[in-house]
Amino acid sequence: MNSSDLLSLTPQEMQARFAEEGLPRYRAGQVYGWLYKGVPYAEMGNLPCELRTHLEERYPLTLPRIERKLTSAIDGTVKYLFSLCDGQRIESVVMKYEHGYTICISCQAGCRMGCGFCASTLCGLARNLRPSEMLGQIIVASRDLGVRISNVVMMGIGEPMDNLDNVLRFLHLVNLKEGLNIGYRHISLSTCGVVDGIRRLAKENLPITLSISLHFTDDEARSAMMPINRKWQIAELLDACADYFRSTGRRISFEFTLIQGQNDSPGQARKLAALLRAHLGAGTPLHVNLIPVNPVAERGLLPSERARVDRFCKTLCDLGVNATVRRKLGSDVNASCGQLRYSEGERSVL
Ligand code: SF4
Predict the structure, then answer these.
(1) How many domains are there within the chain?
(2) Residues 245, 166: one domain?
């Protein structure tokens, strides 16, 4: 861990760090509270001036900086393009639901998974985010909007299982009552199917929701669109999901992006229902989220028509599979993963 990264520490670690430096332990608690409010050292009013200067030099704050902010005129969804201390860009989206505010955060700058429908991977992986940079997206958005964010989805740029050490520390930190106090049950983590990561996460036994980007029912089509499937095929992935449920008791969510003419027929829906039943058993609680693909010009993919989406959903429900069509938020602010970062990157190159 970066030794100057104060926000990636637990309160106890911060106290220990302060004690090592000969600083009073209680000061760590004060600083911790301010950091989670996104307050810069200069404004930490209950700290002596010398301490503020020392912290500024020893532990420079590196919260994400808002580079662009787009607010949907349709539903108020806010999309942020953040720049990090080294100039890398990431995205976060804040959505308002009846139960409160949810943020979708990034865990990597870029992604190396290569999914064929996703803009986040078009330039590959630049680097992993530190726990503080994941927390920072919530802290900065919350302060900017003046709201408490109560739910987190790790479905933005990056593959969480590809940065799992940092993601696990982030999950621990975001849950602490001294910090953001976001309950594990209010956190979802999405993976494209990194099976060894799912198995490792199961051992942590955290009551978060695991979400699988499945999207296809046969290995040939899935491997063509999602290279991870060449390493872990659908059967192995679903068996890992069954084990995850056995370990944690948590319902699993499956994301299924519908692409016109590719995976959106009633026959595909029947195949999906059969696959889930075969590998997870009839009694395992699960949910299928149907998402018409976001058009990505570079990929030439078209979303399924609404009638086909509804038919796919009804076919699943008639077969006893809990399925819904995801409400599309922020359609006027380029809200799908990686599109803003990519278009900004392109612009800065031109
Ligand atoms: S869908 Fe997720 S895992 Fe796949 S390329 Fe995009 S960000 Fe990476």
Answers:
(1) 2
(2) yes
